[in-house]
Amino acid sequence: MPRVDLPLDQLLEYRCTTPEPDDLDEFWTTTLAENDHPLDVVLSRVDTGLTLVETYDVTFAGYGGAPIKAWLHLPAGHQGRLPVVVQFHGYSGGRGLPQQMAPWPLAGWAHLTVDTRGQGWSQGGVDPTPDPDAAAASSHYPGSMTSGVESPQTYFYRRVYTDAVRALQVAASLEQVDPDRVLVTGGSQGGAITIAAAGLAPKAGVRLAGAMPDVPFLCDFRRSLEIASAGPYPEIEAYLKGWRGRGEQVLNTLNYFDNVHLARRAECPTLFSVALLDTVCPPSTVYAAYAEWRAEKEIAVYEYNGHEGGQAYQQARQLGWARARLG
Amino acid sequence: MPRVDLPLDQLLEYRCTTPEPDDLDEFWTTTLAENDHPLDVVLSRVDTGLTLVETYDVTFAGYGGAPIKAWLHLPAGHQGRLPVVVQFHGYSGGRGLPQQMAPWPLAGWAHLTVDTRGQGWSQGGVDPTPDPDAAAASSHYPGSMTSGVESPQTYFYRRVYTDAVRALQVAASLEQVDPDRVLVTGGSQGGAITIAAAGLAPKAGVRLAGAMPDVPFLCDFRRSLEIASAGPYPEIEAYLKGWRGRGEQVLNTLNYFDNVHLARRAECPTLFSVALLDTVCPPSTVYAAYAEWRAEKEIAVYEYNGHEGGQAYQQARQLGWARARLG
Amino acid sequence: MPRVDLPLDQLLEYRCTTPEPDDLDEFWTTTLAENDHPLDVVLSRVDTGLTLVETYDVTFAGYGGAPIKAWLHLPAGHQGRLPVVVQFHGYSGGRGLPQQMAPWPLAGWAHLTVDTRGQGWSQGGVDPTPDPDAAAASSHYPGSMTSGVESPQTYFYRRVYTDAVRALQVAASLEQVDPDRVLVTGGSQGGAITIAAAGLAPKAGVRLAGAMPDVPFLCDFRRSLEIASAGPYPEIEAYLKGWRGRGEQVLNTLNYFDNVHLARRAECPTLFSVALLDTVCPPSTVYAAYAEWRAEKEIAVYEYNGHEGGQAYQQARQLGWARARLG
Amino acid sequence: MPRVDLPLDQLLEYRCTTPEPDDLDEFWTTTLAENDHPLDVVLSRVDTGLTLVETYDVTFAGYGGAPIKAWLHLPAGHQGRLPVVVQFHGYSGGRGLPQQMAPWPLAGWAHLTVDTRGQGWSQGGVDPTPDPDAAAASSHYPGSMTSGVESPQTYFYRRVYTDAVRALQVAASLEQVDPDRVLVTGGSQGGAITIAAAGLAPKAGVRLAGAMPDVPFLCDFRRSLEIASAGPYPEIEAYLKGWRGRGEQVLNTLNYFDNVHLARRAECPTLFSVALLDTVCPPSTVYAAYAEWRAEKEIAVYEYNGHEGGQAYQQARQLGWARARLG
Amino acid sequence: MPRVDLPLDQLLEYRCTTPEPDDLDEFWTTTLAENDHPLDVVLSRVDTGLTLVETYDVTFAGYGGAPIKAWLHLPAGHQGRLPVVVQFHGYSGGRGLPQQMAPWPLAGWAHLTVDTRGQGWSQGGVDPTPDPDAAAASSHYPGSMTSGVESPQTYFYRRVYTDAVRALQVAASLEQVDPDRVLVTGGSQGGAITIAAAGLAPKAGVRLAGAMPDVPFLCDFRRSLEIASAGPYPEIEAYLKGWRGRGEQVLNTLNYFDNVHLARRAECPTLFSVALLDTVCPPSTVYAAYAEWRAEKEIAVYEYNGHEGGQAYQQARQLGWARARLG
Amino acid sequence: MPRVDLPLDQLLEYRCTTPEPDDLDEFWTTTLAENDHPLDVVLSRVDTGLTLVETYDVTFAGYGGAPIKAWLHLPAGHQGRLPVVVQFHGYSGGRGLPQQMAPWPLAGWAHLTVDTRGQGWSQGGVDPTPDPDAAAASSHYPGSMTSGVESPQTYFYRRVYTDAVRALQVAASLEQVDPDRVLVTGGSQGGAITIAAAGLAPKAGVRLAGAMPDVPFLCDFRRSLEIASAGPYPEIEAYLKGWRGRGEQVLNTLNYFDNVHLARRAECPTLFSVALLDTVCPPSTVYAAYAEWRAEKEIAVYEYNGHEGGQAYQQARQLGWARARLG
Predict the structure, then answer these.
(1) Any idea where the Acetyl xylan esterase domain is (chains A, B, C, D, E, F) (predicted)?
(2) Is A316 near chain F, with CB under 8 Å?
(3) Distance between CA A112 and CA A145 in Å, rounded?
(4) Least confident of A124-133, B160-169, B301-310
(5) Active-site residue identified among B131, B147, B278, B284
């Protein structure tokens, strides 16, 4: 198949050249400070029929105080404080039904799987999480990518990244959890939120044990727009196709959410994955974020895969990587 | 090309068999009563460079008081009270730029071209009209079709149809306009809003001189879902694909907005158009609404056209039809 | 979306009219008798890193003695004889990696997930299961559907169905398993094999506690060829497109493998699922098999889904159904 | 694959219900009379490098006297008067290069392969045959289907069918040919011209020994327009999509060229072929023409083929059929 | 979306390197001289129902004396000699119906909208303009692009460009028009004809006030063939695919019609537009022509648009640009 | 159309940089030695109805002794020992029916057209040739490309190339054939086998008079995987998509079958053809093999063609080239 991006040797050298906004730290420090209200975590036990795992319906107060939904899975009969894996989801997805299991609780760990506000349509499930912010009312191209894209203050992912940092705080605050052993993970948009959460965690006083983003989205926006032929990036171009002349304004907004910049701020070890035929999250943009990660890092490369990435192969690799860190 | 719907002789006989909700009139009477606040019309003159036409930027208070945008075009040097054509737009469109002209002002009439809240992305233009209602925050499949579809009270088109009835009131209230010569028109979603506005106008005390819906959308939802292969109807199925088990709830909501039922309440003459190869607004669903119209009516049939319908041919036909009614 | 098959009320009445081969029972009795060699089960423990589940690599002797691979998952620290769920896989899939978990072991049950010989390409994993039979050498259209389709004796699914019956025998023979509580399940091709295994189980002396086929394949071949627009059925037409004139010969072969006929022979309760927009396994063909099931039965209907069917929703429903039968 | 037309049992009963034009015979009698100028056949020997076959470049005067090109192939060293097969070509094709061999000369017969005026673009070759008629200048949708479709007098196929009848006369007039053993054949458009030539031959005093149309085009236009999803029929709809309101005028023109009507006039035996998955020349329209053939007839049915039809299988069948008639 | 051409900074530097034919000026001088017959303009008033605009059906003698159709729109009640905008149309289009209005007459100017011979099929309308030239009879790939492409003398656009120069002469000759204020415009093929008309106008003694080509076609043929993936350029490749070996002959013909060369000869100011995602008229080929324009020039760049270009945004920009020149 | 590979001037310079396996000669010498069993040629006369040609059904012992089928066509009434053309077929094809004629026997030569084991599905015909080797049983992605790709010893094309060398030996051994005038030809996969047969012929003691590969497949595998967007190369990527991590193993296998390396070993003159828009067998990979050919060579370039290449044009060119060598 025709290559979709640079050959591997050039990917390894590729760097994003867009400078970060001068006030990037200030923007996020302010955002998190403005959203420093109590977490208001509510847990309620759910019967899934799966006797090896104990499951709770979780609600906490996200950006602007909006209620965010999650599932908490714990190994049945657990004892002591457990390591925890916090997981975010791909664009359109969400926590789904409580029976949907990732392998983490089967490894003996807690697992917090968190909704993305305003999404969930591809899975359905129970009680979706709305995006009740006033900024969500703006006229935009359908989907999340251009919701409030007029300014960094109103952009959709300002709310989502803040929700994510608060989800880490929720995880660390649980009585069943060891706050020194918090991992964060997710694929595609979930990978983007993973990097963002890892990059912003230090500002929120959260110390992560590791981050495992897979085929992450929302990296190196300018290049992503020039390469991605599928997935949500083209929503931005669809918006700019109608609203001619707003290109620079939009790119300025997006730059506050570019995970190339947020990766630079992460302090925990990381295991990335990248797929060289990925037309949704082009490999150069994943490498661009990976290149900026300053703590211990490794990357799994899937040469002949598209956006599905490593799937079970990567899950197995993550399990090994996590076991080495979480015991 | 394979036919997309019934053959013409059967289209003429086709009737929608879904009964209307028992409380349909109550629902709409209540909705309009709850939104009976002042119109708060603001006009401001715009320079388009087109010397034959005078153009105004219009804002009025729609559903819930939200500001709705429109352009008002008047023939330059007009005298006396003019007939007016109120136009609504297709899904994703809007009033666009003030230079975009329909033929109505060139015929010597006023023309009020009205935004659809939350849309406009395919055209861009000036100051889009947001949809600031709390119900718009719900998690839904991207696009307008499933926004608030959980109940008739929260559904997107409750707000849009109400905005439309108020746009008729705005048009009739203008000092340059003869309130006895108000026509309403639009294609696709604009055709749907045309029928809805005509059907609800009597409840709002608006007497229309005519309605000209082209290839109208939002008619006979059950059948539309079973036939339409393109356009916005499939958004509903995409929502139900994820949110399994909500089919009847959603169809119940949609039934309050079905133009088969609202057509039954219209009291003015009408000129419909239908395209027999239309995969977006299937011809049987257009005929289903047309069949219920009880006032004087005619329909232009485009046998070999898809959703583009009659285009300039229909415009010419509408001009003739309107001239016969408006002078 | 345009309907892909009959409307629901007609689906409920639809029956396959192709008579079964006169010697169908003889064919299968002979086939199973010819393959009544020892099961030669070999188990070897695998470390998956998942502490709640114990996993074994399983090999047993299938049709013609060929080695068939499976994973056996058991809840860690299990005691006594467990219920077991035997799972077969969709076309192109297989048991995959040992970390890939279905919910069954989390419910406290044994889970045997079995390869389909000659497949597995869409997942990869560990040690694929070849199809070393001489009949597999025939020139055929790529894929499994026409492998050996010249006669019932040489057809691919003769080997696969036999492997499946033997997998049930393997499950029932395990020391950790209660042979009176064996369930069988699978989706698509896995659903086809589920029905076939349930229909043939009585001939092999296996008494099943239940069968849960999802969106099953290989039912009502004549109609499937006339409706399915995606998936493997069109491989048969591709074969017949080149090898003109072999239609009746091929349909005669397929009739020995039609699950409409094998469903008629099943003796255990069943929970089917069907998706009304399924273009791979058309809903009428699923109903055709369901109609012939003579034991206790129910069917989950997904009105707005394609071949993905109910996914997590169906998994939750299956868990409840299985709990009611297996405790 | 979803069936594209009626099931086989209904195809056998299907009849076209469009009545033929009252003046159909008059139209064609006049057309042929107006084009009764000398054939002006010119042959010139060509070296193809194929020693078993002798090849001539042929030019003759077609409709309006325009020069039409053909190749004449004869078995090398032939003796006496040979049977001849006259072949017409599919839409876009033509006689191509002189090295392109059909099996006819290898069977010991003469073979005259004739250009279609204005076509040939898909093959290239030597000296294309233009369509210099004044009627060809009309503005029409690209391709041949709507060239001059405004009236029967100006329509493209008036010229082509006349050229074809004259090609039969050319063949019968050759000194190497036995005028009592003339066969005509062709596939798709070539099949259409075959039927037309056979139907018009009696008016031109040509007695044919047989006609072998494969998957013929230009039959039962109304139905073809409603079924065909590929190939040239949709050109007609593309024309009517732009030129709204001309539907009946165009269908009236086409009716003079419908091979359902011309088949009724054929007097020689025939071997048809039809493909049941043909989306270009729908099988019901082929059966509609076949049903009207009043002389001895048979039809080869390719159940799992599209417009490619029987290819080499049909060639073999034709050879046998022709041998039985031509010796 | 993947970029379709060079990045913007390289577009600005890009130059076409194909040298122009030595006899280019001679070719066009001869062509125009051979077609210097009287214009034979006939105007007849049409009732459009649009009271602000007066419309005339125009016929004039084009290349070879063939009658070319146009509409002339004038502001009702106009006085004195008006500026005029002459508009040409995109491939397949034409003047359409007389009710189809561009904004020019609304700005108080005359507007002459001119048919392209042999086209018009995508719009329909009234009385299409045929292409009765003998060269149009040649066998070519369907569509206009290869009609007569065998030589510059016979090529389709020789006739079209000549018609266009004569349309400028018609406009300048009208009694209602000020011959010193003639603008020419058009999009896509209309943009190509705009450049050609501007480049050839000096040879015909026409002095233009400005040219406004949008996303122009027929520039830098060699590169266009290597980049364009949609629209009419691929017709040329389809022709060469069949008629193997004619590549250089065809490129030689096209070079006489390349607007890179004709742009070099234009003497009036210009406003271009270009769309950076245009797959029909690749942006580098537009810049190639723009780079050669030697008079005052500016270009509107639409970064996120395809061949639709700026639409209403560009119309607004053109109005401003034209007002500054025409008053 | 966007170019699919390098421009022509760079194609001429392109070289494959993958080194050949150190033991390439040993691998093939051993393979051929292991398959040096008697040819066991069986001929039986077939009646095709074509009187100018005499046809035989041929069976010979291929790799591992498996029976390989072919047709032998001879000019009727031939005398003395004839030149012979041995032809191999494209992927999915085969010898087909005995009536299918290439031009070779019409030029007075013998023609041996040989099946590819395990293929033939796109043509049907008589008695397909199976691939009964044990290595064919492996689980692989459907189609031939990954059958046994785990090692050079088990790979599908080891068997096919050996069959081909033996087919040359069969041809040379026929009593009707002059063993000094053996040509080999084929297109696509048939072109690949042509090069392989020519490269391996010296090891088998066969002296060829020439080789005519058209748009050959299986050249420069690494680059082919990066360019080809259609045809069988993507089967390899589909296999590696599931079986992650096997890339280098597979590329190592393929390197033993790369015709860049085998072309280097050919000793006879050659006429290649290449198509510059070929997305199945990218032109650079054809040039890569051509560049390594060390005997007399020429190449026909089809600039505007895809994988269909030169068709009848190339056939005519081959006839001329062959006549110059075979008389």
Answers:
(1) 1-323
(2) no
(3) 25
(4) A124-133
(5) B278
Q: Give C-chain residues touching A105 at CB under 8 angstroms.
A: 52
- In order of B272, E129, E133, E228, F94, the CA distances from E160 in angstroms are 39, 11, 11, 22, 51
User: Identity (one letter) of the amino acid at A144?
Assistant: S
Per-residue buried b or exposed e for C116-129, using 16+ beta carbons within 10 Å of the residue's own CB: bbbbbbbbbbeebb
Q: Residue D277: what pLDDT?
A: 98
Quick check: is A89 catalytic? Answer: no
Please indicate, yes or no, if residue F33 is contained in any of the structural domains: no
Residue among A144, A188, A273, A284 flagged as catalytic: A188
Please, which chains are in contact with E (at least 3 CB pairs closer than 8 A)?
A: A, B, D, F
F312 part of contact set with chain D, CB < 8 Å = yes
Q: Give CA–CA dist D142/D152, Å, rounded.
A: 19
Nearest C-alpha neighbor of F77 from the set D81, D102, D52? D52
Nearest to E162 by CA among E135, E128, E199, E126: E199
Residue E206 maps to a domain: yes
Structure confidence at residue A138 as a pLDDT band (50, 70, 90) = confident
Residue E327 pLDDT > 80: no
Catalytic residue among E178, E220, E258, E278: E278
Contact yes or no for A237 and E304 at CB 8 A: yes
Mean pLDDT in residue range F291-313:
98
Strand partners, E85: E111, E183
Question: Looking at CA atoms only, how far is residue E215 from chain A in angstroms?
Answer: 15
Say whether the A–C interface has 3 or more Cβ pairs within 8 Å.
yes
CATH code, D226: 3.40.50.1820
CA distance F287 to chain E (A): 20
Structure confidence at residue A209 as a pLDDT band (50, 70, 90): very high
The per-residue DSSP string of A81-119 comes to PEEEEEEE--TT-----TT---SGGGGT-EEEEEPPTT-
Q: Which residues of B touch D227 (CB under 8 A)?
A: 2
Residue B37 inside a domain? The answer is: no
- Which tokens sit at D78? 């032939």
The annotation places the binding site of C for substrate at 91
Q: Which of C56-65, C93-102, E131-140, E159-168 has the least mean pLDDT?
A: E131-140
- Boundaries of domain holding C238: 8-26+79-90+130-322
Q: E302 in contact with A at a CB cutoff of 8 Å?
A: yes
CA gap F236, F241 in Å, rounded: 9
**pLDDT (tens digit, 9 = 90+) per residue, C107-144?**
999 999 999 999 999 999 989 999 999 999 888 999 99
Residue A24 confidence class, pLDDT cut points 50, 70, 90: very high
- Tell me the percentage of chain F whose pLDDT exceeds 70: 100
**C-alpha distance from D73 to closest chain F C-alpha (Å):** 12
Q: Up-side HSE of residue E14: CA atoms within 13 Å toward CB? A: 22
CB of B261 within 8 A of CB of B24? yes
pLDDT at residue A137, rounded to an integer: 87
pLDDT band at D327 (very low <50, low <70, confident <90, very high): confident
3+ Cβ–Cβ pairs closer than 8 Å linking B and E: yes
Partner E contacted by F134 (CB < 8 A): no
The chain B residue lying nearest C7, using CA atoms, is B226
Q: Is the CB of residue A316 less than 8 Å away from at least one CB of chain C?
A: yes
Whether C36 is covered by a domain: the verdict is no
Q: Mean of the per-residue pLDDT values for chain B?
A: 97
The percentage of residues in chain E with a pLDDT greater than 70, rounded to a whole number, is 100
DSSP state of D300: E
Mind telling me how many Å the CA of F2 is from chain D's nearest CA?
20
Indicate contact of A with F: 3+ CB pairs under 8 A: yes
Instruction: Domain count for chain C, please give it.
Output: 1
